[in-house]
Amino acid sequence: MSKQRSRDTEIEVALRRELHRLGLRYRVHRRPVRAVRREADVVFGPAKVAVFVDGCFWHGCPEHGTWPKRNGEFWRAKIEGNRARDANTDRVLDEAGWLAVRVWEHEDPVVAASRVRASVLERRRRLA
Predict the structure, then answer these.
(1) Average pLDDT per run of 10 along the chain, which is 128 residues long?
(2) What is the per-residue pLDDT for 67?
(3) Parallel/antiparallel/unpaired status of strands 49-54 and 99-104
(4) 102 — phi, psi (to 5°)?
(5) CB atoms < 10 A from the CB of 60, how many?
(6) Residue 70: how many other CB atoms lie within 10 Å
(7) What pTM value is reported for the model?
(8) Which family, according to UniProt (predicted)?
(9) Would you give the distance in Å from CA 1 to the centre of its chain?
């Protein structure tokens, strides 16, 4: 597990590159809400949009997630715990007026960036 990158993964960098190409500016690896010790991968502060890039294995992707046979109980608890934490993070951010956008690692960065851009522009219009 220690060999797995937690920051600046290939999909994360590709997503940020595409967001920048679309003219969006953002912060990287920030806490959207100071009271919660969870960082978003990309943060649009004024629009209050937090983007999380989730790994298919670690976050239990319904399309690509797998359940290991070895030490299965441990991994099931770990992955389900990650899912529960993700749901809690989304709820806490929502209560604080933020929008959490989840991007799976298998998603096309161009398509994901387009979805994020639409969310950011919609929030900017609403908050203006």
Answers:
(1) 69 97 97 91 97 94 87 94 96 96 97 98 90
(2) 86
(3) parallel
(4) -105, 130
(5) 19
(6) 6
(7) 0.92
(8) Belongs to the Vsr family.
(9) 19
